Amino acid sequence: MIIEGKLVHIATIDPESSGDDDEVDDHFIDARSRGKSLAEFRFRVEEAIKGNYLFTTNDDDDDGARLWGVEATDAAVLSKFLKAKRYKVYEAFTALRRTLRWRADFRPADDDLAPPWDNVWFASGADKEGRPLCYSVLGREYQRNLMSMGQQSCNEYLRWRLLCLEKGIRRLNFQSGGVDSIVQIVDMRHAGGPTTKEMKLIGKKMIALLHDHYPGIVHKNLIINVPSWFLTLNALKLRLVTKRSKNKFIFVKQSRVTETLLKYATIENILVQYGGLRRENDTEFTTEDKVLEAYIRANGTELIQIPVEVGVSVTWDITVIGYDVAYREEFVPEDDCSYKILLQEKRMGEGMRNSFYIREEGKIVISIVNHSFTRKKAFYRYKTKASMPIHRIHN
């Protein structure tokens, strides 16, 4: 959350909650104790399966108790419940049984039961630790549905949010050393006006389900493009949030979205609509292409020069954190008798991509003028390839 220009982390947790389900840092539990608890927990689960008193769910129609696509006795699954319950075996075992019962009844991973809102959920890129970045886009349409359809719509909306989470889980690898958590990014840019009673109820239910049935699955919940009314309504909750849970939910207003996402992902893994360089189905660049950096001093100008050769096409990507700079692209020939070619000139309000066929010796020069009183940072990349000019290709 942003207050007086500073990023503040808040969690939408009921302030009256005792916090018993909050995860504990592994550093406070020695390896021997963790191993002992894990062995005891696995023994309890195996005995429950043999005695047929462990409520099971079959996501993959396989035999045996399964959770998130793997066996319920898997160390990765058991460790998440143990950590959530401070390595208290009985409490972890009870939580696992409740989760399996809930999944068997609610069937959150069943695509056929969810409303057709797939176009507002997608996964793209990964954070610096390889965790999938999973996006959910909220819009006015869902607000109207909630207000017009009542409880039925609320249930559908909650089921959609859970299915989004389940789709993210399908991208995980619970094998030893694999990525076993996701980063959820909820975009509130088009969320509409102040939350309704139904929306608040859904929010509380969603938080409760995450704590009870998805321990350790979500590494961070980044709520981005948060409207001012939301920040205002939640400001007083800051004093009621415990230190342990405040870093799970991060609320960010529009002007700080790219800066915040950069704390968790590299610029080439952040989508272009959020200030990054990543474009879906990109045929020009990959995350392996080198990204360069440049700083534009306050009230200053930065020149980025791209060396090129004759007979090639050069393509470049560039974004400036915070945008709001004057942007100019031109081809500058080495021959003093040739003319400069202006390629583009505008006020930057989004990431830029352009290309140009080189017919003579010279270079691409990008000018970025920063009229603000703070230094800005630019990220850019480029590549060249041999090609024919477009007008000749069509002849």
State the separation between the terminal residues, measured CA to CA.
56 Å
Q: Main beta sheet, described? A: 5 strands, mixed
The proportion of residues in beta strands is: 25-35%
- SSE order, as H and E? EEHEEHHEEHHEHEHEHEEEEEEEEH
How are the strands of the largest sheet arranged? 5-6-7-8-9
* Count of domain modules: 3
Commentary on this structure:
The structure is a single chain. This protein is of the alpha+beta class and 395 residues long. It folds into 3 domains: 2-18 and 108-265, Phosphatidylinositol Transfer Protein Sec14p (3-Layer(aba) Sandwich), CATH 3.40.525; 26-106, Helicase, Ruva Protein, domain 3; 292-393, Sandwich (Jelly Rolls), CATH 2.60.120. 28% of the residues lie in helices and 26% in strands. It has helices at residues 31-50, 75-84, 89-106, 140-149, 151-169, 197-213, 228-234, 257-261, 390-393, and strands spanning 2-3, 6-7, 66-67, 70-71, 121-126, 132-137, 182-187, 218-224, 249-251, 292-296, 300-307, 312-320, 325-333, 341-348, 352-357, 362-370, 376-386. It has a 5-stranded mixed beta sheet, covered by helices on one side. The protein has a 4-stranded antiparallel beta sheet with strand order 10-17-12-15, with no helix packed on it. β5 (121-126) and β6 form a beta hairpin. The chain is elongated. The protein starts with a strand and ends with a helix.
Write the layout of secondary structure elements.
Elements: E1 2-3, E2 6-7, H1 31-50, E3 66-67, E4 70-71, H2 75-84, H3 89-106, E5 121-126, E6 132-137, H4 140-149, H5 151-169, E7 182-187, H6 197-213, E8 218-224, H7 228-234, E9 249-251, H8 257-261, E10 292-296, E11 300-307, E12 312-320, E13 325-333, E14 341-348, E15 352-357, E16 362-370, E17 376-386, H9 390-393
Parallel strand pairs: 6-7, 7-8, 8-9
Antiparallel strand pairs: 1-2, 3-4, 5-6, 10-17, 11-16, 12-15, 12-17, 13-14, 13-16
Helix pairs in contact: 1-2, 1-3, 2-3, 4-5, 5-6
Protein name: CRAL-TRIO domain-containing protein
GO molecular function, one term: lipid binding
Organism: Salvia splendens (Scarlet sage)
